[in-house]
């Protein structure tokens, strides 16, 4: 699984959630530099090429040739939500009262080296029980 981070560390000051465009938000310094280093070190040996031969994408898919790791980790996702993202996202609420509630436990780590890319695309919603994802959360290390 993913490594334990210092989840008790308080974010001080709390990162500001800034809306760049309709439904697109950014918050800086969600993870500390040492937390980023810990995650990079723990995942780097598990990254695999997504398209080592640079083949064109299939119909309806985006071109990608980055490295990635897929891993389901409910504990890490819960801690990431509870201790880092929930405090930042507390002010988010749709007009119908819906609010963000968690992070999908199917986590991905991407690495881009010179010349690698992931073309424009739209993420497919994830459905778990009665819930459906509406946002994609990207944490840049």
From TrEMBL:
Signal peptide: none annotated. Keywords: Iron, Metal-binding. The keyword Repeat does not apply. SUPFAM superfamilies: Clavaminate synthase-like. GO terms for molecular function: metal ion binding; procollagen-proline 4-dioxygenase activity. GO terms for cellular component: endoplasmic reticulum. InterPro entries: P4HA-like. This is Prolyl 4-hydroxylase alpha subunit domain-containing protein.
């Amino acid at each position: 699984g993913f490594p334990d981070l210092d989840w008790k560390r308080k974010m001080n000051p709390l990162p500001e959630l800034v809306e760049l465009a309709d439904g697109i938000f950014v918050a800086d310094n969600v993870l500390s530099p040492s937390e980023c280093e810990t995650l990079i070190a723990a995942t780097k040996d598990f990254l695999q090429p997504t398209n080592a031969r640079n083949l064109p994408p299939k119909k309806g898919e985006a071109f990608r040739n980055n490295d990635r790791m897929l891993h389901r980790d409910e504990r890490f996702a819960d801690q990431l939500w509870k201790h880092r993202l929930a405090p930042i996202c507390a002010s988010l609420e749709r007009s119908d009262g819906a609010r963000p509630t968690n992070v999908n436990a199917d986590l991905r780590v991407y690495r881009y080296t010179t010349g690698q890319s992931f073309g424009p695309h739209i993420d497919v919603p994830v459905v778990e029980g009665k819930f459906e994802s509406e946002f994609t959360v990207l944490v840049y290390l």
